[in-house]
Write a structure and sequence with these properties.
The complex is a heterotetramer, with two copies of chain A (333 residues) and two copies of chain C (208 residues). Chain A has 333 residues and is an alpha/beta fold. Chain A is built from eight helices and 14 strands. Chain A has helices spanning 11-22, 84-94, 108-123, 153-166, 171-183, 232-247, 267-283, 314-321, and strands spanning 27-30, 35-38, 48-55, 72-78, 100-105, 128-133, 185-191, 211-214, 225-228, 254-261, 287-294, 304-311, 324-325, 330-331. Chain A has a six-stranded mixed sheet with strand order 1-2-4-3-5-6, sandwiched between helices. Chain A has a six-stranded mixed sheet with strand order 9-8-7-12-10-11. A two-stranded antiparallel ribbon of chain A has the order 13-14. In chain A, helix 2 (84-94) packs across helix 3 (108-123) and helix 4 packs antiparallel against helix 5 (171-183). The longest helix of chain A is centred in the C-terminal third of the chain and has 17 residues, at 267-283. Chain A is globular. Chain C has 208 residues and is mainly alpha-helical. Chain C starts with a helix and ends with a helix. The chains are: A alpha/beta (333), C mainly alpha (208). Chains in contact: A-B, A-C, B-D. Bound molecules: adenosine-5'-diphosphate (2 copies) and magnesium ion (MG) (4 copies). One magnesium ion (MG) sits between chains B (54, 79-80, 109) and D (35, 37, 78).
Chain lengths: 333, 333, 208, 208
Amino acid sequence: MKKLINDPRAVVDESVEGFGLAHADLVTVSADPKYVTRKDAPVAGKVGLVSGGGSGHEPLHAGFVGRGMLDAAVPGAVFTSPTPDQIIPATLAVNSGAGVVHIVKNYTGDVLNFETAAEMAQAEGVEVRTVLVNDDVAVEDSLYTAGRRGVGGTVLVEKIAGAAAERGDDLDAVAVIGDRVNQNVRTMGVALTACTVPHAGTPSFDLADNEIEIGIGIHGEPGRHKIAMENADGITGRLLEPILSDLGTASGEKVLLFVNGMGGTPLSELYIVYRRAAQILAERGLTVERSLVGNYITSLEMQGCSISVLRLDDEMTVLWDAPVHTPALRWGV
Amino acid sequence: MKKLINDPRAVVDESVEGFGLAHADLVTVSADPKYVTRKDAPVAGKVGLVSGGGSGHEPLHAGFVGRGMLDAAVPGAVFTSPTPDQIIPATLAVNSGAGVVHIVKNYTGDVLNFETAAEMAQAEGVEVRTVLVNDDVAVEDSLYTAGRRGVGGTVLVEKIAGAAAERGDDLDAVAVIGDRVNQNVRTMGVALTACTVPHAGTPSFDLADNEIEIGIGIHGEPGRHKIAMENADGITGRLLEPILSDLGTASGEKVLLFVNGMGGTPLSELYIVYRRAAQILAERGLTVERSLVGNYITSLEMQGCSISVLRLDDEMTVLWDAPVHTPALRWGV
Amino acid sequence: MGLDVTWAVKWLTLSAQAMAEHRVELIELDRAIGDSDHGENMDRGFQAVLDKLAETPPETPGAALKLTAMALMSKVGGAAGPLYGTAFLRAATTLGDAAYIDAASLAAALAAARDGIVARGKAETGDKTMVDAWTPAVDAAAAAAADGDTLAVLIAAAEAAEAGAMATDPLVARKGRASYLGERSAGHRDPGAASSALILRAAAGAAA
Amino acid sequence: MGLDVTWAVKWLTLSAQAMAEHRVELIELDRAIGDSDHGENMDRGFQAVLDKLAETPPETPGAALKLTAMALMSKVGGAAGPLYGTAFLRAATTLGDAAYIDAASLAAALAAARDGIVARGKAETGDKTMVDAWTPAVDAAAAAAADGDTLAVLIAAAEAAEAGAMATDPLVARKGRASYLGERSAGHRDPGAASSALILRAAAGAAA
Ligand SMILES: Nc1ncnc2c1ncn2[C@@H]1O[C@H](COP(=O)(O)OP(=O)(O)O)[C@@H](O)[C@H]1O
Ligand SMILES: Nc1ncnc2c1ncn2[C@@H]1O[C@H](COP(=O)(O)OP(=O)(O)O)[C@@H](O)[C@H]1O
Ligand SMILES: [Mg+2]
Ligand SMILES: [Mg+2]
Ligand SMILES: [Mg+2]
Ligand SMILES: [Mg+2]
């Protein structure tokens, strides 16, 4: 394990500290309990948006704190959801009185910790709504599992719900649009290599030189199954097929295509995947109205990618295009 | 070698094609000869900015094509400078009559190919100026080498010269500001792992599990020397020391701090490096006026980073802050 | 008489030791079917418990467990944090202000802990979670409690928990992160069941 | 008589074969002290030469070399592209429209090629570049040309180039990408010198 770190147990502390220094114009960092808020939080009259989860997925979530997206992000230890004693003060800090939406990826740990925090914030008089993100089509039988995981779609939910909050939507409306994004997005990922959690020191799973892991989550957990290495076009087809059939897209629909790197894959390769994905969508009669390519929700230094397809309606497109000013996503401002 | 590619020889073609599809609102791709131009090129009355070099450094250069930065990028094969028959038509395509500046990283191949292209473009009536970028302090004795390489500083030259062109500076003025950025920026890099050129199939150099390569370039070539693995703070000091002493910064000066990932390093680690670099600069009495953290000039999937420090003056700061709208760098618009 | 606050503090101290000692082992178990953090999280959490115990020494067993619940809830994170937090909180509530715990209230406290885990996590027996260690432990404790010997209750609980944890090996996970693996989760021990067995063994050790 | 266009086309064809055959070897040489692309670039470039030769068959040796210069310039890239491009262009210019090349003009063409490389790359002898293959080759060719035998000129040039390439092994590079390595460049053969020797050997092979 070679990493640009000091003490493996100080990784999150030091990284968030550096993040705060680099983006002091946009965010404020609370070191203990650890959370990051938008510099001008709470924004009067605006619904607050809080997300969080284990670290190791950067730029998610702290990189999306700022105007038009999140009001606060709560980073846990690497791949470990944060605790209520972080989530509660973050929630209080961004509440302007209009209430707070928690955007929670559907993992047992995140759900339980945010659940507790929401309950306790409500007890302190803050109205909280929760948007649960569960867009991962790799989890096939959600009856016999903890349910679909929240993966790439999280970025899209945060952007679009963030824009809704920024334009002044009320608490329920922000939660509703967040849910609508979640219901219309599907994601599937592949790993070419595992990643190594700093405190663990060994790769999160074993993969032979000619194997890839299909249907991974974002925590370095193994995926649905291993297959022999394939070329980019083949892999793209494998990821997109279950997405489209689960989403039930019809010819003529408009979509947002999001090709996300897992952290260790060159951008050039993501564009090769994007190319094939765009071809397949065109063959299906779908119009790619908007797109996003890059490393936005990662698993440390893992090589691989995920593809997300979001079925767009006009309102979502308008909210997607709305100005955003965060460390990792910025336009219109 | 596991990569999200199809034919190793089609990597650049397919990647640039995907890039063009994903950013069709911003750029136009010419497939053969291969180059990327700003959608609205040539911009009437504006000096054109062209850069280029081997592929494998994405988002550099094509990711910086757009308003406020480059008018054209010319991608060569992986780690191979492009040829005059690409550079010439790119130069002609972005010439509005105000002339064209070539931003060239100081490598023999780039220099020779751009030199030939400039000569031939001039023969076709286009005024060309060349800004040579050579910011790499790892190359110690430029008398006995091909001279310092162009590395991280290239991104800063392209942004600031791009803003100068956008505000209407004439040909000489754009070249002068580009040179001024180059003269005030120094960079040094480290590799924790090598990268693998697709057509080669073997890592570009050999590095033991407990070794790192200090003073690397961006083409997977070995660096100045190998040392035993160190922690992030130690490495940061090693990179920053020669930068500051070569730049000869004095207490009270303002700088831009740029921590760049080589492609395979998690963003969280770049922030750990940023943290220490910011501490060191503060200890030296330098003010970090602006900063940039992320993967902007990469070496495929290499793990590692480079640090660049640019001594800022007021004009450079204004030009840095000016609106930019490219696939990889965007603000103010 | 029964178990007092000294026992409780010793239990928690031994638990912290066990988490530190088995940190790598629990990480490895979680690496196989999860995300490689369980040992790290539990170790960090119980170190926080030790800090709290030193800071504000509790006066009753219930207070010790409540403090533990709060420390785990705020330092463990992940799935295990809230689940163990709730478990210790419910046990503390059952014990109230009592200075001494007899066999019956001990068994009741263990049952409350287990019920708390189930209430939060909604796992059933056989889902390959920490519940598969706790439920046999609670049953064994209830049976042993009839004799009135707290040490015997704790030993019975520890043994049953260990057997329960081992019995998760062949199971296919239906809750928690391991459930995403489906059939691939079989053949590995559940990390939360393993840490639960360690904690219950520490309880017996503290009473011996 | 002397060498005609058939020889020239055969030379280029054998060069293309040599680049394809030694592609991996040249990549490996470049991997050690450069960026792993020399073999790939030369192979791609000479395949383009073959395409051009098939497309518009040249009528004179000079035309064949000019076409080669253009193809290499536009398809090789990197340092080697412009250097080889200039070399072939200068040689072609020297040969003009002549249908046949005698030993003297052959030696002159090789010298012009080398001068072109030096003019573009500014490398001196001993800088560990392709110049270290070309300069001994040019000298040997000049010496051999006195006898008037073109084959002898080409064999002398090829042998000298091969020796020159081998002699780059211990050198410390002072030009090109390898120069960044400083002392670490010693102990490796210069890839451009190696490809130059292959090209000059192909010239002799085509005349045999
Ligand atoms: N729904 C649940 N009910 C009971 N226990 C659960 C549940 N989900 C997970 N667990 C327990 O939590 C353990 C994992 O804890 P940990 O690794 O710390 O959290 P995470 O899965 O969030 O990384 C599992 O081994 C399992 O015993
Ligand atoms: N200044 C120079 N003069 C002469 N030859 C040079 C010079 N610079 C580089 N070369 C030759 O070019 C070869 C490298 O070619 P290649 O690998 O294709 O280009 P690049 O270094 O751009 O990747 C070197 O081995 C050397 O022989
Ligand atoms: Mg976890
Ligand atoms: Mg090269
Ligand atoms: Mg875990
Ligand atoms: Mg090379």
